[in-house]
Design goal:
heterodimer; A: mainly alpha; Rossmann fold; Serine Threonine Protein Phosphatase 5, Tetratricopeptide repeat; five-stranded parallel β-sheet; disordered N terminus; B: 417 residues; alpha/beta; Helicase, Ruva Protein, domain 3; 3 domains; two-stranded antiparallel sheet
Chain lengths: 501, 417
């Protein structure tokens, strides 16, 4: 017998789009609260997005009589728990501030028994940065807790960080890249000059990298590396190492990526090439960010920032600011993240680096979306859209449409949501971006589900499923399967009900 | 507290709280493994000593310190002793703590007890101490009278003010700057009078002084003013912050007291990673007292004990696994639930630790010792504070190791280093 299976109700859509782990967490949380009714308990929920958090709280509200307390200072916690003025409340819900202040950490650590003496369970929400401080500085509270849950929120990481590229290509569209590839391939065949050949191979590698043809990119970079090694061109070797590192980083082979970045770093240090050293630090930081070693990533970004500020290279500084912002975004320190994104934006605007500006707008939009300030989020997504349209960056346009569509879905403006999602779908089809198509299909399916059009929802979800299957994207595939499963179950129940009638 | 017969009861029986009531001791208490220190030793010393001794009581978080202090309180012969046990957290502001406030609160606690135990102390002594405390706290008679009319006693009112008003604490500190001996003299008059009238000796047990580990306040209290802690003319058991014991000053302090006792955590494996059966059995018995062991697979229990090896974490893991198993519709906890709970906790620790912490943990594991390099270095202390490193004791003395839950991460950390 499975108890409390599928506690998730229709209004809690966001969690269904979150990870599978989240679904399970919500179920367990509800079960835990159910069995600790009438007893003191400390249940910690780590969630970075206030919007997502509020949806979890809404779910608790559907099930229990809750009292929500937005904590501002430590004394408040002690006072409320000592007063015990809870009336008919079943569960106390505490929302901790974004920044872990010492007085709150002290109050939690020193008065943790009060949570048990309260006679009703407490669910305490805070972000990842707060968790770290609790583990380090409030170990008694941490030890006294009941369960703790980490909610991932929407599956994909919404923030965009940039990597450092040795010679970034400026191009308008895919056709332009293809054209450059053709010319380079032609020249490669003609030239006998090894040095020139090595440069062409490096260039071809970069083009393939941009086009997402990673194995080919790797092949070109490796060939270039071989030639540069023969020619003892240290600068070229360092460049090739860095680019090979970038390929491995995207492929998810992070240890290999680190290895190559460190090789590049070593040569650049020997040559005293400061900008390249800073670039290596940025990319090493990116690997640690992906590995979830956020403090280490931050260390590398700061090292890069220091060098870069000395050199006065503003472009890379903007990239570093953006990436630092991403770290804070992941940690749930949204105001800090916003601050860095705004700093990056300011530089990119000044330098007229439109791609960077669009990236910053998107990140800022994401911060507001996570905070639940949906109109502001829309505003920034629209700004990003406008720039991407100016640049003719179809991928960027499609991403903007997708984000705008999703905000309308959260707002409940479902027709508008469909309008934007369909636009995103068309562009992704044009681009041949299978993953983008799959994600958009799934989002459209979601909108139909909320609209109660289950057949249509299934139709789109099945389309998404096929694409993810083709791509071998297991996690996306699984997430989509779960949605299909839930809808099918719902349809079966509906039919059964109709038959009975 | 009936033994859990289903998973929901397991969840509710496995709570990390010190044992307090007769019922809890009867149903849940497990004798600590033989050979290790127990509070019986303190009890024997108090009951047989001619001097009014002062002791330091040390123990890591989660080693069962508060439970043992509660036991001590219950064991001492009440026909010969008055035991006053309190937590500094309830009396004072632990974020703004000073030895002067501490002695005022101790005097008030003893004064309070005379009312509760109906001990009629000499009115001169009573009035003198009341006047003295009102003077140093600058509280007016009228204010006291008003509170009395609401049913709040003088001592309770004063304790509330000291605990919650920074201004009152400021007055006390200023007034007692050069007159702390005046206060201690009055404290000792009070103790002498109580002991005379009741024909019993006073034992004061102060819990949670080890929570003063934040900032410099603990060091100030125990290192700079430790000689004052020896002055109250009664038995006193002070809980002592264990991270301070890793400081060279500790030796001076320790020698000044009549005894220092460390409540060890029973390690599951010895320095050579060999299983210590008796200690393993200690943890298993704790579980057995709280739940019917048919509710957990043997292999799951073994994994929970071996991977935690620390009382509070062991209890938390069983609790989390119980709710998972219940939700999954299982009738008992399996290895799956235990492993999932362990992995989640491990992941969280891993993310929280910095590279320096990890390097030091690898060192602690290899050397079985945790020392800071110099006065500026506090990494080992931080690790012991956050319980990612733990200290044990055996016949060869004290030794340290990393929290067993982190051991599967060692190889990864070594590679990263």
């Amino acid at each position: 017998m499975v108890r409390y299976k599928s506690n998730i109700k229709a209004p809690f859509r966001e969690v269904e789009e979150g990870s599978l782990e989240d679904l399970e967490n919500v179920d367990t949380l509800l079960t835990e609260l159910e069995v600790s009714r009438g007893r003191g308990n400390i249940i910690i929920c780590v969630v970075n997005s206030p919007l997502y958090r509020d949806r979890i709280i809404q779910l608790l509200k559907d099930r229990f009589r809750i009292k929500v307390i937005n904590v501002r200072e430590g004394n408040e916690i002690i006072h409320i728990l000592k007063e015990k003025n809870f009336g008919e409340t079943d569960v106390l819900v505490w929302i901790m501030p974004e920044e872990p202040k010492d007085d709150i950490i002290n109050a939690l650590n020193n008065f943790r028994e009060l949570f048990y003496d309260a006679g009703i369970p407490s669910v305490i929400f805070f972000n990842s940065a707060f968790t770290e401080k609790v583990i380090r500085e409030a170990p008694d509270f941490w030890r006294y807790r009941g369960n703790f849950y980490e909610f991932k929120g929407e599956g994909e990481l919404p923030f965009i960080a940039f990597e450092y590229l040795t010679t970034p290509l400026i191009y308008e569209n895919k056709e332009e890249l293809e054209k450059r590839r053709e010319i380079n391939e032609y020249l490669l065949d003609k030239t006998t000059d090894k040095k020139f050949k090595a440069d062409i191979l490096s260039d071809l590698g970069l083009i393939c990298y941009y086009l997402g043809e990673l194995d080919k990119a790797l092949e070109y970079f490796t060939k270039a590396l071989k030639l540069n090694t023969e020619l003892e061109r240290k600068g070229g070797i360092a460049q090739n190492y860095l680019n090979i590192g970038n390929v491995y980083s995207i492929k998810g082979e992070l240890d290999k990526a680190l290895d190559y970045y460190n090789k590049a770093l070593k040569i650049n240090e020997e040559l005293g090439r400061k900008e390249e050293i800073a670039g290596c630090y940025v990319n090493i930081g990116n690997v640690y960010r992906i590995k979830d070693k956020l403090d280490k990533a931050l260390d590398y970004y700061n090292k890069a920032l220091k060098i870069n500020e000395e050199l006065g290279r503003k472009g890379l500084t903007a990239t570093i600011y953006r990436n630092i912002g991403v770290i804070y975004g992941i940690k749930g320190e949204l105001d800090k993240a916003l601050n860095y994104f705004l700093k990056a934006l300011k530089i990119d605007e000044k330098l007229r680096r439109k791609k960077g500006v669009a990236g910053s707008y998107l990140n800022i939009g994401n911060v507001y979306r996570i905070k639940g300030e949906l109109d502001k989020a829309l505003d920034y997504y629209n700004k990003a859209l406008k720039i991407n349209e100016e640049l003719g960056r179809k991928e960027g346009i499609a991403d903007s449409y997708l984000n705008i569509g999703n905000v309308y879905r959260i707002k409940g403006e479902l027709d508008k949501a469909l309008e934007y999602l369909n636009k995103a779908l068309e562009l992704n089809k044009e681009l041949g971006n299978i993953e983008g198509m799959g994600i958009t299909y799934r989002n459209i399916g979601n909108v139909y589900w909320v609209k109660g059009k289950l057949d249509k929802a299934l139709e789109y979800l099945n389309k998404a499923l096929k694409l993810f299957d083709k791509l071998g994207a297991q996690i996306e595939l699984f997430k989509t399967l779960i949605l299909i499963d839930n809808i099918s179950e719902k349809m079966a129940k509906k039919k059964k009900h109709q038959v009975k009638q | 507290m009936p033994r859990a017969e289903n998973l929901v009861e397991v969840y509710n029986n496995f709570v990390v709280e010190p044992l307090r009531t007769d019922e809890e001791f009867r149903d849940f208490y497990v004798e600590r493994p033989k050979g290790s220190f127990t509070v019986e030793e303190i009890k024997d010393r108090i009951e047989n000593s001619k001097r009014k001794e002062k002791y330091l009581f040390l123990g890591f978080r989660g080693s069962g310190k508060s439970t043992e202090l509660n036991r001590l309180m219950r064991m001492i012969d009440k026909s010969r002793f008055i035991v006053i046990c309190y937590s500094v957290k309830d009396e004072l502001d632990v974020n703004d703590f000073d030895f002067r406030d501490f002695f005022v609160s101790m005097a008030l606690k003893i004064y309070d007890m005379t009312g509760k135990e109906n001990i009629m102390i000499k009115s001169d002594i009573k009035l003198d101490i009341e006047d003295f405390i009102m003077r140093i706290t600058r509280i007016e008679e009228e204010e006291v009278e008003r509170q009395k009319s609401y049913g709040i006693s003088l001592s309770k009112f004063l304790r509330l003010k000291i605990g919650s008003e920074a201004k009152t604490r400021e007055y006390i500190r200023k007034e007692l700057e050069t007159r702390i001996s005046d206060l201690i003299q009055r404290l000792n008059w009070l103790i002498a009078e109580v002991e005379d009238k009741s024909s019993k000796k006073i034992v004061v047990v102060i819990d949670d002084l080890d929570k003063l580990t934040r900032g410099e306040q603990a060091e100030k209290f125990f290192y700079q003013n430790y000689s004052l802690l020896l002055l109250p003319d009664c038995f006193v058991v002070y809980t002592f912050p264990i991270p301070l014991a890793f400081n060279p000053y500790y030796e001076n302090v320790r020698q000044a007291f009549d005894g220092s006792f460390i409540l060890p955590q029973p390690p599951i494996v010895d320095r050579e990673e060999k299983l210590i059966e008796e200690n393993f059995e200690f943890y298993r018995k704790i579980a057995e007292k709280r739940m019917n062991l048919n509710l957990i697979d043997d292999i799951a229990m073994k994994e929970a004990i071996l991977s935690t090896g620390k009382l509070s974490e062991f209890i938390l893991i069983i609790r989390e696994a119980a709710i998972k198993a219940y939700r999954n519709g299982r009738e008992k906890i399996t290895l799956d639930e235990i492993e999932a709970a362990l992995e989640k906790l491990r992941r969280t620790y891993d993310r929280t630790l910095t590279e320096r912490h990890k390097r030091r943990l690898v060192e602690i594991y290899e050397k079985k010792d945790a020392r800071d390099r110099d006065e500026k270095d506090s990494i080992s202390r931080d690790l012991l504070f956050s319980l990612t490193a733990v200290e044990y004791e055996d016949e060869d003395g004290r030794w340290c190791d990393i929290n067993p839950i982190l051991k599967p991460l060692l190889e990864k950390w070594k590679k990263e280093a």
